[in-house]
Amino acid sequence: MQKLWIYFLLIGIVFSCKKETQPEVADANLSEFTAFQNTPKTQDINAEAMIILKDWAEFTSFQKSFDFMYRAGNNEDLVLAIDDLLEKENNLRESKYPEEFDKTQIKSRQKVLRTFLLKIKASLVENTDVNEPVKQMLTARNAFRYQFNIIVSNKLDTKLILDEN
Q: How far is CA 78 from its chain centroid?
């Protein structure tokens, strides 16, 4: 009878011990970048604003760098894309803004965009999830782009309002 209990105990131990499978590293990297599909749609810039912006080379270069970011397939590509975006944003910040867009509304939204770019870079360095910072950064980019539309479509002369004479 004791031998029978020992056999049942050994059979129970063998069947209860299962080999744990670990997720593949490649699948983990792909799941991080599928979040680009769930990001906010890019804000369009109206034609009137585009006429002004097309001559601003730094802005055009900055916007083209986002295409490289969308093509990132792993963390290394995303790090390169974010570094490129930060460099282009720095060039944009130091460049001469077109007269119509040399306003604090544009510059403040650009600072917010830079903050979220830095947040993504920090997440990549710390090896944490980048999905939420990417969504926040793209929302900030849309606000930045939308502000161009607002400034161009606002025909109200603030000098007339503020002038008390």
A: 10
Using an 8 Å Cβ cutoff, are 79 and 37 in contact?
no
For the chain, helix, strand, coil in percent to 5 are 75, 0, 25
> pLDDT tens-digit profile of 8-46?
676 777 677 666 555 544 444 444 454 466 778 888 899
95-131 burial: b if 16+ Cβ within 10 Å, else e: eebeeebeeeebeebbebbbebbebbbebbeeeeebb
Site of tokens 């604003």: 49
Give the pair of three-digit tokens for residue 22.
């670990």
Six-digit token pair at 33?
């970048």
Q: Return the structure tokens found at 24.
A: 């593949």
Average of pLDDT values for 142-147? 94
Single out the residue of 65, 36, 27 nearest to residue 131, CA to CA: 36
Predicted model pTM: 0.72
Structure token digits, residue 34: 């599928």
